[in-house]
Amino acid sequence: MKRIRIIGSVGSGKTTLARSLSEEWGIPYYELDNVVWERNPAGDRRRTEEERTELLDTLIKSEAWVIEGVHNEEWAAGSFREADVIVFLDPAYSVRTYRIIKRFILQKLGRETAHYEVTYRIFLKMFKWNKYFEQNGKPNFFKNYALYTDKIIVLKNKSQLKQFLYQ
């Protein structure tokens, strides 16, 4: 496995898993949020659709990568097509909710960093995004990418995650 695509809702553990795989296997990881947004000290800028697609296409042409993100829209389809394995992180809704709260507290205390301004507005949006993913994102993913069933691995808890990591 040299090309790994990780998908899941906010709070599912995508970035944590991507970092772990990147460190353990010595391959770069990329966050799709950083494909959508050009990060600048003066403020982030949303990339145009063309810029975003071009950047992602460049990344997936690499020999090895871990790409993580919630995005499963058409512009991200190449990352699923080119992946050797697609890891769908699907912890319980309540676990994701807990992680959203925990992340916010840690970020506000300065113990965890964020690529965005940590505000109550974003915090509340995370709950909406979590619910939206559960109701729409998850069903759309399995409908739109059913042709990749042979390379999709669904992980629902830490024991399944450990089994995947140390197989």
Q: Could you name the key traits of this structure?
A:
167 residues, alpha/beta, 5-stranded parallel sheet, two-stranded antiparallel sheet, 7 helices, 50% helix
Topology of helices and strands:
Blueprint: E1 3-8, H1 14-25, E2 29-31, H2 33-36, E3 37-38, E4 45-46, H3 49-60, E5 65-68, H4 77-82, E6 85-89, H5 93-108, H6 120-144, E7 152-155, H7 158-165
Parallel strand pairs: 1-5, 1-6, 2-5, 6-7
Antiparallel strand pairs: 3-4
Describe the structure.
This protein is an alpha/beta fold and about 170 residues long. It contains seven helices and seven strands, in the order βαβαββαβαβααβα. Strands 2-5-1-6-7 form a five-stranded parallel beta sheet. The protein has a two-stranded antiparallel sheet with strand order 3-4. Strand 3 (about 35-40) and strand 4 (about 45) form a beta hairpin. The model has no long low-confidence stretch (mean pLDDT about 95).
What portion of residues is helical? Answer: 40-55%
How much of the polypeptide forms β-strand, as a percent range? Answer: 15-25%
| Biggest sheet architecture | 5 strands, parallel
| Whole-angstrom Rg | 16 Å
Helix run count: 7
Average predicted confidence as pLDDT: 94
How many beta-strand segments? 7
Shape: globular
**Helix-strand makeup class:** alpha/beta
Q: Segments where pLDDT lies below 50 for 5+ residues? A: none
Strand order of the largest sheet: 2-5-1-6-7
Cα distance spanning the termini: 12 Å
How would you spell out the order of helices and strands?
Answer: EHEHEEHEHEHHEH
